[in-house]
Amino acid sequence: MTILNEKPQKLSLKRIHYALMTNEHTETWGEVKTLTMPISMTLTPNFSEAHLDAGDRVVDQEAQLDSITIAGETADLPTDVLVDWYGHKKSAEGGIITNANDTPNPIAIGFESGTKLVWLLKAKLKLGEETNSTRKKGETGYKVYPFGGEALPLIDGVIKHTVDTRDAGVTVTAETFFDSVAKPSETVVTP
């Protein structure tokens, strides 16, 4: 019997990293940029499923990961990030022009959470609901910037690359992992 070393995972969303996909055919990315004030990030896998019923029971079941839904919030989404993520244009006055014809740019989006380092290699994000309100006497509030979208598979089917820095043999650090975006290489594991 093999005993696995289980360790508690500390929750701590430290940074969000992203890079524009510069070529969808060759699956290459540009420079990595970093947001330092994330609030939350939720990943929800989406599956295609099928069941085979025979003899008054389920005799087989298949499930295939199709995409991962992304939902998050940050303390700020600077103008350059809005342009990069959502395909908006900058105005001569330094503002953002939101057009009905804007299409989100494919990006790699990554984050550090505790000891986990994660890259979602091809995502398309959409704006979240924007709330503006008057401050009430005696109350203090903060504006947050929600976003959402889908992480889609690359040509070879890879959607996500996760490294746990607690694992034996792991030599990458957050600095080296998020220095650039690259497809992960597979290691053959023998049973």
List keywords for this structure.
191 residues; mainly beta; two-stranded antiparallel ribbon
**Integer average pLDDT:** 88
* Strand residue percentage: over 45%
Low-pLDDT runs of 5+ residues are none
Helix content: under 10%
Question: What is the tally of beta strands?
Answer: 11
Structural class: mainly beta
Shape descriptor reads globular
**Tally of individual helices:** 2
Radius of gyration: 20 Å
Secondary-structure element string:
EEEEEHEEEEEEH
* End-to-end Cα distance: 14 Å
Q: Major sheet: size, sense and barrel closure?
A: 9 strands, antiparallel
State the gist of this model.
By secondary structure, the protein is mainly β. It is built from two helices and eleven strands; from the N terminus they run βββββαββββββα. The chain has helices at 79-86, 174-177, and strands spanning 13-23, 28-29, 33-35, 38-54, 57-74, 89-90, 96-97, 107-113, 116-127, 145-151, 160-164.
Explain this structure to me?
This protein has helices at residues 79-86, 174-177; strands at residues 13-23, 28-29, 33-35, 38-54, 57-74, 89-90, 96-97, 107-113, 116-127, 145-151, 160-164. The chain has 191 residues and is mainly beta. The protein is globular, with a radius of gyration of 20 Å. 6% of the residues lie in helices and 45% in strands.
